[in-house]
Amino acid sequence: MASASVDLNHYFQQGYRLVPLSRTVLVDHDTPVSAYRKLAGGAWSYLLESVQGGEQWGRYSIIGLETRTRYIVRGHELTIERADAAPETTTVDDPLAEIDRIHAALKVAPVDGLPRMTGGLVGYFGYEIIRYIEARLDLPEKADPIGAPDIVLMHSTELVVFDNLSGRLHLIVHVDPADPNALDKGEARLDELALKLRQPLTPPVSDGSGQTLTPEDFQSHFAKDDYFAAVERAKQYVYDGDIFQVVPSRRVSAPFSADSFDLYRALRTTNPSPYLIYFDFDDFQVVASSPEILFRVEDEMVTVRPIAGT
Fold it and tell me: What is the Cβ-side half-sphere exposure of residue 225, based on CA atoms within 13 angstroms?
C-alpha cells in the first residue's frame, strides 16, 4: 500500500496498534540470500524460504530485519527484551497463555494487497513446551544439556517479502497510527531500505568454504544401548495404550567455527525443502529444513498436512 493513500486515523479508530506500510521494488539482480545480507544479516533477524517439489524455489521468501522486541521463555520465566530498555523477567504459571495474550495485544491492521506474511511473532516453540500442556511432564530436575530457551519469539515489524516469480519484493514497515508523524517516519524508513538494496554487497557473500566436517567429527549424546532400551520402553507404552506412536531421536553435535549463515546456504543447496529456516538469536542460531507444513491457521481456516511418522 502506498503510504500517501493510508488513512492511519481510520485504523486508529478501529483499535489497531500497528499498521503495515509497504513499497514494491524491482530486484531482479538480487537473491534472497544477498537481500538478507544487505538488509538484515545480524542478530535477531531471520530468513524463511521454500522449495516446491524439490526442484523450484517457492514464490515467496521472507526476510526479517532486526527485531526490537523479543519474548524468551525458560521454564516458567518469561523475559521481555527491548532494544531501548532493560530486560524484564516475570514468573508465569502458563507461558502459552501469556504468549497468546501478548499476540492478541499486537493488533496489526489487515491491509489489502499485501502478501500473507506481513510481520508478527516469529520464532520457535521447543519440544519441552509439552510441560505446559501435560503437567505430569513438568520435571524441573530434567537435565538440559543445550541450555536453549523453550520459546523464543521475535516481534517482527520490519520485513521484506521476496517475490521470486515477479522479481520484485515488498518492503514492509509497521507504524503506530497514534503517532502524528507515523507516515513520514514510515516513508523515511522505506527510503532507507530501498537505498540499501541498491548498494553493492559489502562484504561480498563468502564462497562457503570455511569449515569441513566429517562423520567422525560428530558425537552422539544417546548411547546405542540406551537407545535400544528406549525403543523397548516405547513399545511397552504402545502396548499399554499410553501412546500410539513415538519418534526416538538421537542428538549429535560437532565443534563448529564457521559462519552459521554459510551452513544455512549449504543446507538450502544440498537439501532443498518446502520449509527452510534461518534464525539468528544473537548468541545462537537455528538452521532447519523441513518437508512438512505441520499446520497453518489463516482466517479461521486450519491446514494440517503432517507427513507419515510425525
Answer: 0
Candidates 83, 89, 40, 22; CA nearest to 279 is: 40
Cis upstream peptide for 203 (omega within 30°): yes
Element (H, E) at 124: strand 120-125
Helices (H) and strands (E) in the chain, counts: 6, 18
Instruction: For residue 154, name the pLDDT band (cuts at 50, 70, 90).
Output: very high
Residue 3 is predicted with a pLDDT of 56
Distance CA 34, CA 104 (A): 34
For residue 150, pLDDT beyond 50: yes
Question: pLDDT tier at 1 (50, 70, 90 boundaries)?
Answer: very low
Residue 282 has pLDDT above 60, yes or no: yes
**N residues, the chain:** 310
Instruction: Identify the CATH homologous superfamily for domain 3-210+260-305.
Output: Anthranilate synthase (3.60.120.10)
Question: CA triplet 263, 265, 266: central angle to 5 degrees?
Answer: 65
The residue extents of the domains of the chain are 3-210+260-305, 212-255
pLDDT of residue 5: 67
Its pTM stands at 0.88
